[in-house]
Write a structure and sequence with these properties.
Distance between the termini: 9 Å
Number of strands: 12
Largest sheet: 10 strands, mixed
Structural class: alpha/beta
Oligomer: single chain
CATH topology: Glucose Oxidase, domain 1
Mean pLDDT: 97
Helix content: 10-25%
Number of domains: 1
CATH class: Alpha Beta
Length: 165
């Protein structure tokens, strides 16, 4: 299904201005092979540790879902790389949004998945087995709740409690 976040913004302008639909600030860069993706959010919070991300992407069915990662906006290391993005593709994830850094852009770019992040960083995360899942998180000042709907394309990212399509 194709959509446009600009068209969705026009269609749901009143709900956006009322705060029922949020628009993420335009600080995320696209690194995956798909610039357009949507699905329900699985929200996690980590900090410079990708143990939980690895567990989720390697073991859980991602059909119709987007992994939304509050990584504390850290750009001191990458929490997602080519191996994890590849695992996400195998498990059917629609996209990954990282409020932090990713790496292995040459591996991620051709993959059929959306990957948004603040930046690239060559250093991998340390595995400390920390992180929490299925909680409300904040991405650049925008609250994202578990099971919110995420709509992303080259123009931006929308977050809605209700499906828009």
């Amino acid at each position: 299904m194709t959509f446009s976040t600009t068209d969705l913004c026009d269609q749901f302008e009143a709900q956006i201005h009322a705060g029922a639909i949020q628009v993420l600030p335009p600080v995320f860069q696209s690194y995956g092979g798909h610039t357009q993706f949507y699905g329900q959010a699985l929200c996690i919070k980590v900090f410079e540790d990708n143990t939980l991300i690895k567990q989720i992407l390697e073991n859980e069915n991602g059909a119709g879902r987007v992994l939304v990662i509050d990584a504390g906006a850290s750009v001191r290391c990458a929490v997602v790389g080519g191996n994890l993005a590849g695992a996400a593709v195998k498990k059917g994830w629609q996209g990954i949004i990282v409020d932090g850094a990713v790496r292995d852009v040459a591996e991620i770019a051709p993959l059929p998945i959306g990957v948004l992040a603040l930046a690239l960083h060559p250093l991998r995360a340390i595995k400390r087995n920390t992180g929490v899942r299925d909680i409300a998180i904040m991405l650049q000042g925008v609250r994202v709740n578990p099971l919110d709907w995420i709509y992303a394309d080259a123009d931006g990212v929308l977050v809605s409690a209700q499906p828009l399509l």
